[in-house]
Amino acid sequence: MLEIIVKLLISYLLGSLMGGLVLGKVLGGTDLRTVGSESAGATNALRTHGKGFAAGVFAIDILKGFAAVTVVAGFVWPGGSTELISPLALSAACGVAAVLGHLYPVFFGFRGGKGVATLLGTMLGLSPLILGLSLVAWVIILLTSGYVGLASIGAGVAAALVAIFWSPGSLTSPISLFCLLMAALVIYTHRANIQRLREGSEYKFDVWGRFRK
User: Fold this and answer.
1) Does pTM top 0.85 for this prediction?
2) Taking 90 as the threshold, does the pLDDT of residue 179 lie above it?
3) 20-29 burial, b if ≥16 CB within 10 A, otherwise e?
4) 3-state secondary structure (DSSP) of residue 211
């Protein structure tokens, strides 16, 4: 039991290392939560600080999610690993903790980003196949609609559907439960985007990498 608690705590703390806010402090930049859409994620970083800064934010946020489900969850515990839950379930739980750390980072006043990049990192470690298919959905929705937020929501829903119908154990498998929870979180964290879509004021992304309303 102690192993589970420690690994979940480390995953949460790892998730709390917000790429946008860490780089902002290191480079002396603006707090992303005070500009643009007021999100600390890569999309707002691109919109307000350019491609280089956004790439750094994206890389950090992906890597911490990947590390949580692979390095942290897979760390060999002294005396042998727990048998209370399966290794896959523990990896999924560490992924949830990392995403929650990104959403509510203890190091930054519990005000984080929307968790999409960190979620990508966790899915890369848990199921590259589901990640690949959800990215296809993301690209299709982005190219047809121009809305990054809508594409993220669609990709989250697509990942949950793929996991339910393709993964072993169907609805009750660790991967399915993880994807369902993450899809719900993505929808919740993009509630402001949904409201702006309804109002017709959401930022739109064009093929040249520019944002407009």
Assistant:
1) no
2) yes
3) bbbbbeeeeb
4) strand
SS3 category, 41:
coil
| Residue linked to tokens 């004021």 | 201
Residues 6+ away with beta carbon under 8 Å from 79 = none
The answer to whether the beta carbons of residues 74 and 86 sit under 8 Å apart is no
- Measured distance CA(55)–CA(33) in Å, rounded: 17
Q: Summarize pLDDT for 141-166 with one digit per residue, the tens.
A: 998 888 888 999 999 999 999 988 87
* Dihedral angle computed from the Cα positions of residues 28, 29, 34 and 40, in that order, rounded to the nearest 10 degrees: -100
Q: Are 182 and 119 in contact (CB under 8 A)?
A: yes
Q: Measure the CA–CA gap between 50 and 28, rounded to whole angstroms.
A: 15
Within 10 angstroms of residue 209's Cβ, the number of other Cβ atoms is 10
Q: What are phi and psi of 205, to 5 degrees?
A: -110, 125
Helix axes 51-67, 19-27, angle to 10 degrees: 130
Amino acid at position 119, single letter: L
**The token pair that represents 112 in the structure block:** 């984080």
Backbone CA torsion sign across 163, 168, 169, 175: negative
Q: Give the integer Cα–Cα distance in Å for 29 and 7.
A: 32
> How far, rounded to the nearest angstrom, does the alpha carbon of residue 201 sit from its chain's CA centroid?
24
